[in-house]
Amino acid sequence: MTVAKAAARPQPDRLLLFTTVLLCAAGLVMVTSASVAFAYTQHQSAFYYAERQAAWLAMGFVALFVLSRIDYRRIRPLAPAGAVAAALLMLLVLIPHLGVTVNGARRWFDAGPLGTFQPSELGKLAFAVFIAHWIDRNSQRMGDFQHVFVPFAAMLAGVLVLLMLQRDLGTSIVTVGIFVSAYWAGGGRLRHIILLVAALSLGFIAVTLLEPYRIGRLTAFKNPWADPLGAGFQATQSLYGLASGGFFGVGIGHSIEKYGWLPEAHTDFIFAIVGEETGLIGTTLVMLGFLVFGVRGYRASLRAPDRFGMALAASVTTWVTFEALLNMATVTNTLPITGVPLPFFSYGGTALATSLAAVGVLLSIARHGSGPALGNNRGSDESFDRGRRDRRPPLPGGGGRARAAR
User: How many domains does the chain have?
Assistant: First the structure.
């Protein structure tokens, strides 16, 4: 009887947890290494940033373990209030003397000894929970353009306006990934998603053309070597760092780029320091880590016991993996610079703690997920049809069932 109870007890996804712990441990080592020079010159303490990152890491793991032990469905009633609170904080940060301005952008609150607090990072989790909740409530009408897709697009547009007021294009792109992945996992139509992505692409192009510094980034992206000491300085130094690492790297702590050559070495461009100090082996292991995270996260989504869990797991997994992909593409000059951090690695307390809290929710979904026969628990709900070929319910006497029979 005891063995049967143990077998029936929900089991955590140990591989997902182990991968997250390894990525965070490697990230803390790299933040310490990449920030020592800048921390000493700015704060007269070589471990200034490492100590704060460690404090946020501890808080993040507390949130992870608490949320992983709680049934994720218990946070659902908090979804509307959480989304409203996140939106209000994102508005308040724009008020002069309340928000902290860095490089012309106002996105942070002063968090005292812990550095700064960025509401938009908290908003990623709050909006992911809310949109999964909203999609589940509208599950029977997911193919309806007017009553589902239009309100969905309007909510996304509202969040994007707040982010663009903060001049945060990188978080805007990640937020689109969070919303779209939840919509798709919840049963949204592919043609609606294509229409939304096309409209947003035009919007992002317009926003880019309106900001001179973004046009400069595009110009530098096309050929950073044309102005290696000006607009292309960050991109060329990042590539120098990656190339210098070779196969095995120069060794942990022995980077040259972090000594004032590579801007944002401990934040958005920490992957270049990873490449310089650990080489191709280190960067490959980091990429494999995020690949494993993605596989386990989407597995949890597919095995979720309900639509809310499926949409939420898909959005959290997309958030972490898409953000990692964007960061790596930026560092390697595959994409223009967007200011997206590398999850679990880049210095930034709010991003780290919130990401770990989101992983806790993902672990809870994985814990309560069913086995491979999950589809049997969902009945005949066509919204979970992954083929997306005929999403409309068959009419009496119509060709829907006839086509299925053929």
Answer: 1
